[in-house]
Amino acid sequence: MSENLPSLQQLLEQVSGKRFLDAVSPGDRGLADDIRFPFLGLVGQREMKLALLLALINPAISGVLLVGPRGTGKTTAVRSLSDLMPLVHRSLCQYGCLPEDIEAGGMDAVCPDCAKKYGEGRPLTYLDPVKLIELPLNARLEDVVGGLDEAAAAHKRMRIRRGLLAQADQNILYIDEVNLLADEIVDAILDAAAQGMYTVRRGPVAGTYRARFVLIGSMNPEEGRLRPQILDRFGLRLIVSGLTDPDERLEAYRRVRAYLTNPKAVVAAYAAETLQMRDEVQAARNLLPSVRLQPAAEQAGLQLVQRLQIDSLRAEITLFEAARALAAADNRTEATVADVRTVAPLTVRLRRSQFMVDYFNQQQVEEKEIQRVLDDVITPPAQA
Questions:
Q1: Both 187 and 308 in a single domain?
Q2: ∠ at Cα 168 (351, 61), nearest 5°?
Q3: Considering 256, 289, 322, which residue would you say is the last residue of a domain?
Q4: What's the mean pLDDT in 112-120?
Q5: CA distances from 284 to 7, 53, 86, 127 (A)
Q6: Residues 334, 256 share a domain
Q7: CB 213 within 8 Å of CB 173
Q8: Which bin fits 325, alpha (ψ -120 to 50), beta or left (φ > 0)?
Q9: Is the distance from CB of 217 to CB of 260 less than 8 angstroms?
Q10: 244-274 pLDDT, tens per residue?
Q11: 171 is in which domain, residue-wise?
């Protein structure tokens, strides 16, 4: 990351301040063009944009949940990440063999071809951008986990077809209206997210696939609540409200109008800064393994979670991983108390449960009653 370039956060603020005064003239829209609204063209919503960038930098954050009413830019923001995706190492082998498999389990952990390649010093992987995999609400369970390959079955062969979860390995899995997902699909996602892999069995045929993905979900709370089990899987939680500043709302209208008139011109207006930010995200991801938490930052985070009476250990994990990602975004190798303070609202929000507080308080009453009866029936042993 060059010292002459602004930090990722500075770049975000600088480019978001651009103004569109007039819509550009219409151009050739073409057919089936997938032109996403530029991430840096989003007006306001700094917290949402920061959370999405931190998730790109550090997959250990375990994803982002965007909660808010319709029309606040949640889906647009997620889809606009496509132009900022960092590079990851993907296997060249049909069996998914990776160098870390050999490092962990020896040559027997990979197929003979990959063992030979490794011994000859040839690469087992190639660099490829992270992809955004969308899970539609109408997806069937077989679409999500995989099922029998119909083309192979027509030739009287049995083969498992990869599902969306397998396609999401080392990618981003995005679920719009995540609170409306069918329970069986939620269960499949939870299982894959917990283990980083999953197994599909169809009769005598089975297949095990890696599923190490960053989960991003969006939802409108008016349409229903999210199951606690899947809510706990989202590391960062954002309450996305509408823009309140009239000037920002007007600027948002101008940018949308320009995009609808000529999307290619709008994308081109942010092209240079988009490339710069993509490089910054990649540089931050490369630096991340070297980033350490200051002891004071660790203690501040632990005290925060304790004072808020949050039971889930994922609170500290997400808090510290987000702080490390923020430090990497600023080209620093130490995460400070200030980093913990910045990301804390994103990580501890929606983690407390009044039901669990009441449940444990009620249980304490029973525990005291059990102890009282024990003391009456069985004399406590004398202290040595």
A1: no
A2: 30
A3: 289
A4: 84
A5: 10, 10, 10, 17
A6: no
A7: yes
A8: alpha
A9: no
A10: 889 989 988 999 899 888 888 888 988 899 9
A11: 8-289
> Is 383 inside any structural domain?
no
CB atoms within 10 A of CB 348: 20
Residue type, position 344, single letter:
A
Please indicate, yes or no, whether residues 280 and 331 belong to a single structural domain of this protein. no
Enzyme catalytic residues: 314
In a domain, 382, yes or no: no
Per the structure, the count of domains in the chain is 2
Q: CATH number for the domain including 91?
A: 3.40.50.300
pTM (two decimals): 0.79
Q: 289, 306, 321: which is the final residue of a domain?
A: 289
Give residue 115's identity as a one-letter amino acid code: A
| Residue in 163, 230, 235, 169 with CA at minimum distance from that of residue 202 | 163
